Amino acid sequence: MSEIKSFKDLRVWQLGIEIVKQVYLTTKALPTIEMYGLTSQMRIAAVSIPSNTAEGHNRSHLGEYNQFLNISIGSCAELETQLIISQEPGYIKEENCTKLRELIESEVKQLRSLASKLKGKRNY
Fold first, then answer.
1. d(CA 99, CA 4)
2. Rounded distance, CA 80 to CA 66, Å?
3. Does residue 13 belong to any structural domain of this protein?
């Protein structure tokens, strides 16, 4: 296991970046009428995932780090909900939605695991 020197070394952050890339690619297919609706909201939620993970990692206290990981988890739920909403009218194909939901599910597991590990530490 390699040493974590930066938030960029965290697998959970790297997966968050992959989710952002996939969301940007997927939302290109949404109708222009959704540019300021679902497209914008989905991109904001996706960007929030690795951004909060990074911000939390650079905080001084573990409690703050945990708080930001929980915000990332909330953004995952928000994004998954928006995917479901986008799939209903047929904006996003089922296979694209399924792939993204699997990535989000994996991200949530990693975020929860990291948060759990942090609870057992006194400082870092």
1. 28
2. 21
3. yes
Who contacts 7 (Cβ-Cβ below 8 Å, separation ≥6)? 13, 53, 54, 57, 58
- The two tokens of residue 66 are 């945990």
Distances (CA, A) of 36 to 15, 30, 42, 43, 90: 26, 11, 10, 11, 18
Q: Residue 54: give the domain boundaries.
A: 9-24+36-119
pLDDT digits (tens, 9 = 90+) for 18-61: 999 999 999 998 999 999 999 999 999 999 999 999 999 999 88
Global pTM reads 0.92
CATH number at residue 93: 1.20.1440.60
